[in-house]
Amino acid sequence: MKHLLELAKRNQDRAWEVIRQTDIINIWKSVGAEINLVGSLNMGLLMKHKDIDFHIYTSPFRISDSFLAMARLAENPLIKRIEYGNSLDTEEQCVEWHAWFQDPDNELWQIDMIHIVKGSRYDGYFEKMAERITAVLTRQAILKLKYETPDTAKIMGVEYYQAVIQDGVRTYAELEDWKKQHPVFRTGPQSPRSSVPHPLHLPHCL
Hints:
- The protein is an alpha/beta fold.
- The protein has eight helices and seven strands, in the order ααβαβαβββααααββ.
- It has a five-stranded mixed β-sheet, sandwiched between helices. It has a two-stranded parallel ribbon with strand order 6-7.
- The radius of gyration is 17 Å and the shape is globular.
């Protein structure tokens, strides 16, 4: 277990260096935004997947502020690609940005930025989830599962947390069985609906 904790600490330190080099927090603050770190890095659970998640709020919400922040981020030559999605006309009321940063080892870090209308349904959604998770967190079990997960497998952080905390999953084989019973169910307009019982409900934009 010690080497898992060391690997997690090393990658988390690298993630914070990406945040520093992009100046992403100050960029969003410069357009009047509140920016919250969410997801695995925020909870000390970043393992192998090189991704960093932020939820961002402005009041009033102006899409021009979102584009202005991205224009400033794009000036950084280490930002290699940016993608955009608009879900403002759904119940999620958000704009999503995904940027890829190239670190000194030529590895790409994905930065997910969800710009959410303040006071909307998912305002504070993952921030509150993080509080519940850290209150009962079995950190070593989650880190072990993340480490054992093949790099080709696509498993979201929230799936690990629910499997471990709610259902006592402790091995990757158990996680695979658990996923068959809990397929991801997204509520976005183009998301397929699952017929399998007890799906994991997630907003499309998050």
